[in-house]
Amino acid sequence: MSPIIRKLIQGFAHFRERYFSKRQDLYARLVKDGQKPKVAVIACADSRVDPAIVLQVEPGDIFAIRNVANLIPPYKTEDDRTYHGTSAAVEFAVTNLDVDHIVVFGHAHCAGIQNMIDVQEGKPQHNHFVQQWTSIASKAYERAQAEKPGVKGEALARCCEKHAVLVSLENLRTFPFINDRLKAGTLEIHGWYLDIAKGELSSYDAASKTFLPLKSP
Which domain holds residue 201? Predict the structure, then answer.
């Protein structure tokens, strides 16, 4: 057995002993009553930014949607040949679970956003699905260049990562069932950004058009 698989199995044993055993009533209630999360979190599949760990939530607290670069595609229904995994998860969160909040949870040092940057700059790529998927964030590159002409390297990546969060927020508004709830005041959407090197979390503030530090109330 490989060391990593052994680690996973041991991890499950620890979960049962140290975590599940202390929360059996919670799990029993979640099984009986079903999940009723109030927040959907669209996070990156990056192994360093698990939202349940970063936000220290309990089972049933959040509906987590994870993909490469925490992207939301624009609303689309006409192409039945395309699988809409992320859109289906968003729809389920809003129309089935009736969440009150959606958080687009971006982060620094995102390889998916770097892939998009590399494509925009004409660097050779050896993938198809990733390149097509991250093109959703191509507007982020254009806006970063417009905001900071000539920006390159790490500064460009950080700027694109934040703008990609805003692109996803815009795309969320193209979903009719989301836009209707936003207008009715029954749903709120948020853009968050995690600096994984510093352990700092910020939220987009529309008034100042910038990301501001989030502090515990």
Answer: 35-213
Give the pair of three-digit tokens for residue 106. Answer: 């971006």
CA gap 124, 140 in Å, rounded: 20
Q: What global pTM score does this model have?
A: 0.95
CA atoms within 13 A on the CB side of 126: 0
In the three-class reduction of DSSP (H, G, I as helix; E, B as strand; rest coil), residue 152 is classed as coil
Residues in the chain where the model's pLDDT stays below 50: none
E strand or H helix at 211, and its extent?
A: strand 210-213
Q: For 196-217, how does the pLDDT look when each residue is reduced to its tens digit (9 = 90+)? A: 999 999 999 999 999 999 988 8
- Please tell me whether residues 123 and 143 are part of one structural domain: yes
Q: Give how many domains the chain has, as a whole number.
A: 2
Count Cα atoms within 13 angstroms, Cβ side, for 123: 9
